[in-house]
Request: fold
Amino acid sequence: MNYLLFYEQVERILETEMLSEPQISFLGERNMESPIPVCYLGIVEKLEKWIRQNGYTQSGLTIEDLADLLGTNRTYLSRYIKATYHVSFRDWITGLRLEYAKREMMEHPELTVSGISEKSGFLSLSYFTKIFTERESCSPARWRKMQVDRH
Reply:
């Protein structure tokens, strides 16, 4: 019985102790409207640094790998990503990698789509092309050509 009372008190504190720190959007940009619970503050700084260092480009990255790196556990990290970015870990990583691939295509026209796919952390060119085409409604090569034509 004492455990339940203690748990309820902790829950109440966590719910009421919200900092007015901004959250991070899907691709690492801050959203000033949503507060961050106190319990997530340790993850926030480490995750922002990891994003700035393009840690998501590591091939075969798992949520367990990232949780270990951040000093937390898989479940906690998964909940944080879902609450902050409103997507699953897999979709979040894929989004980060796709944005990175787009930047690389623009900044390094000498690189092949295959090379960019690998550099972005995708395990296969076919998966990269499939996901890119689903999200951008055209192939990576076509997207790159359209961007070059615009500039």
User: Anything to note?
Assistant: The domain at 94-150 is CATH 1.10.10.60 (Arc Repressor Mutant, subunit A). The helical segments are 2-16, 41-52, 63-70, 74-85, 89-107, 113-119, 125-136, 140-150. The first strand starts at residue 18 and ends at 19. Strands lie at 18-19, 23-24, 30-31, 36-37.
